[in-house]
Each structure stands twice: as structure tokens, then as C-alpha cells.
Amino acid sequence: MKKVLITGANKSIGFETARQLLQQGYFVYLGSRSVERGNLAVEKLKSEGFTNVEFIQLDVNDSTSVKAARLALGKKTEVLDVLINNAGVNGGMPQEALSATIEQLQNVFNTNLYGVVRVTQAFIDLMRKSEQPRIVNVSSSGCSLTLHSDPTWKYYDHKSAVYAPSKAAMNMYTIALAYELKDTNFKVNAVCPGFVATDFNGHRGTGTVQEAGTRIVKYTTIGEDGPTGKFFSEEYNPETGECPW
């Protein structure tokens, strides 16, 4: 049975991704900053008939919490097959280039970039023991430099000077990570779940959490011939899924 850790999985897209992976027979470690919300999420999944799920307290913003989570998980399993870096924040609005504060940027980068780095580095030793390790970094087509430079793109006027830069930086980390692991069995990709209506974006969006979960799961379960070091947005490109950086 393959084992997966999902950060920020107590609600919305992370929670739905956990549900879909449980349906496919994975053992899910449900990461959540809040102990109360994490336990409630696990209880809900168990009430739906899933038994292979456990809560892991994990605050990606806090190095001490990440290290404690690694120790806790290490007592439960010697191998981690999948890491889904899903936890993220949008930083609030407005996000204009001339008014965004350094504190605002630091807070968002701390979660969306540094959090991914903290968690990946902490759990990589357990993943190296997997036969087919997979890392999915949840990204956004809204951080594509190419698309934001194209006046014909439908979201061209929706600029963000805080959230988008943090995810663009995470994308570059994804490229570097995939390169470092290119001679191994790892597959490392950035995946946009789509413009989904959740509390993350004020319930604005055109997609559902079910669609978002399916997109993430697709790149979680790729085989040996699957891609690595790529950026995917099936909402942007339904044919190949690839999104420009």
C-alpha cells in the first residue's frame, strides 16, 4: 500500500485529494496546522468508510513543527511514496506592486515557497526508500510569467504582486528539485488544480474541488514513463495539460 502525505489537507482541495487517493487504495497522512480541524477531517473520512487515514500535525511555516511531524511520521512508516505540497495562502487583497508590503510578501513566501522547501527537505529521506516516489507541488496558472505577459490571455488583467510571485518562485524550486533528482525514480511536477471556488479565493471560481482533486491525483499516480520537472494546468491546456512557465 502506497503512503502519501498531504499538507493543508483538512479542507477544500487538499481534503478532496485525500479522499480520492483513499479511493485508489493509498494510505493517507492528512497534514493540518490545526489539531482540531485535522482530527475532524480524519473523522469525516472515516465516517465515509475509509480506514487508512491518520492525522499529522504540521505547520509548514514552522521549522520546529515540520521536524516534529517528520519524527512522528517516522514512527509510523519507514517509507513515504508521495508528498503533495498543497498548503498555501493567498495573502489577502489588494496585491498591487507599489503598495504591497514587505511583511505581506514575507508571510506569503513563508508558506508558499519556504513551506514547500521545509517539508520537502524534511521528508526526502523517507521518500528515497520508495520504489516510485512522487512529489506534486500545487501551483497556479496565475503565476505563469508567459501568460501574464500575453495581453490576449483571459486573466491578463488579474495581476498579483504577492501570491503570483510566491508561486512562480515555487515553480522554479520545482524545476531545480526535479533536476537534482533526474537520475532517480522521483517524478516532481507543479500542478495547477484550476480556478476553483473555495474559501481560499472567496468562493470565486469556475471549477469544483472534485475536478481539482482529480488533476492533482493524476500527476500523483503517474508511472515510470511519466513526466518530471513540468508545469501542468489542464484548465488552461485540456489537450496536453502543459502550462508555460
Automatic annotation (TrEMBL):
Superkingdom of the source species: Bacteria
Key words, A-Z: NADP, Oxidoreductase
GO molecular function: oxidoreductase activity, acting on the CH-OH group of donors, NAD or NADP as acceptor
InterPro entries per the UniProt record, alphabetical: CBR1-like, NAD(P)-bd_dom_sf, SDR_fam
GO CC annotations on file: membrane
Family: Belongs to the short-chain dehydrogenases/reductases (SDR) family.
Protein name per UniProt: NAD(P)-dependent dehydrogenase (Short-subunit alcohol dehydrogenase family)
